Amino acid sequence: MSRIAIIDADLVGRKRHRFPNLVCMKLSAHEKEQGNDVELKMNYEDLNQYDKVYLAKVFLDTPVPPEILEMKNVAYGGTGFFYDKAPKLPVAIEHHMPDYHLYDGFVNQQIAAGKRPKEFDEYLNSSIGYFTRGCFRHCPFCVNKNYNRVEAHSPLSEFLDGRRKVISLLDDNFFGYAGWKDLLLELRATGKPFKFKQGLDERLLTPEMCELLFTSKYAGDFTFAFDNIKDARLIERKIVMARQYTGKALKFYCFCGYDREGKWDAAFWTRDIFELLYRIEILVKYHCIPYVMRFYRYAESPWRGVYISIARWCNQPGFFKKMSLRQFAELNGEKSACYRYLAEFEKANPAAGYFFDLKF
Ligand code: SF4
């Protein structure tokens, strides 16, 4: 029997990370099946005591001590290391039922230390997997840019644990798959609430999709993406259509900070803030909620603090639903960084004032 350590680097290196790593769970299941002793390791100490160490991460900016990657018994992988060039797992592992108990010790310890069980919902209550993988849109910033189409990946039986209450799908562009309807009907037939964690492509919605999706038992908010201001008219048309089927909150990931022209110059940074504000304006008009996602290079912007302020306002719906961005800044106080960032941006760009007063 070999001693195996599995390190979910995002869990070790990110403060608020609360989602299990699917690859780690599959590796764990596979190794346990071989009769090996598997441990979820929460640090990088004494790794030479293990026969094999698997290290995975999803996010590029999760820190990992570089010398660990040189160790002979360490195998590492995931988009956090290789982004769109991440090597595929062997089929026997990729299509293995995940070990949903890999994180038990960690979760129990956290709860015993006073954390709320709700925080660990995805670890305790979700069956997690991909019905489909890939996308056809080739967005240049996306980890899926090398795919040409949406392909079938796993049947539900491959990752469904009947004892778990919720189904969490990680599909990249579910509605871009020709067989979406059968899969959606299969999900509905389980009677379990489900959700698409990565968001859905709202531009593809048809009346039939709306009918089936919005009458399903959905876990949490219906979440879509509104990444490009050029899609504004289409997004708006589809919201109007969706509104015929649901009055529920619709959430939209709003990606920003990525210059499609590759310049990241002063003009881009100002334009990008305005394009984000325009998108928020449209969403507010239809009672939808933005969730701001920043490309890491936003940190180079002279308006870095404005990005942070807008994200803090939007990404906390409790604030977003109650007050305008200006009121949010005032709540932070006239001496706060948030107040100062917005005042400086408005002074340089008086047209921003209109957007600062928008209210949900
Ligand atoms: S539509 Fe979404 S999943 Fe598809 S390439 Fe663009 S960002 Fe990626």
Please tell me about this protein's structure.
The mean pLDDT is 97. Helices cover 36% and strands 14% of the residues. α9 (232-242) links the parallel β10 (222-225) and β11 (250-256). The relative contact order is 0.07. By secondary structure, the chain is α/β, with parallel strands linked by helices. It has helices at residues 9-13, 22-33, 79-82, 91-94, 104-112, 121-125, 180-190, 207-214, 232-242, 266-285, 304-314, 317-320, 325-332, 337-348, 352-356; strands spanning 3-8, 37-40, 52-56, 74-77, 126-129, 132-133, 151-152, 166-169, 194-196, 222-225, 250-256, 288-294. The chain has a domain at 1-120. The strands form four sheets. Strands 2-1-3-4 form a four-stranded parallel β-sheet. A three-stranded parallel β-sheet has the order 5-8-9. Strands 10-11-12 form a three-stranded parallel β-sheet. α11 (304-314) crosses α14 and α13 (325-332) packs across α14. The longest helix is centred in the C-terminal third of the chain and has 20 residues, at 266-285. It binds iron/sulfur cluster. Residues 135, 137-139, 142, 144-145, 172-173, 201, 225 line the site of iron/sulfur cluster.
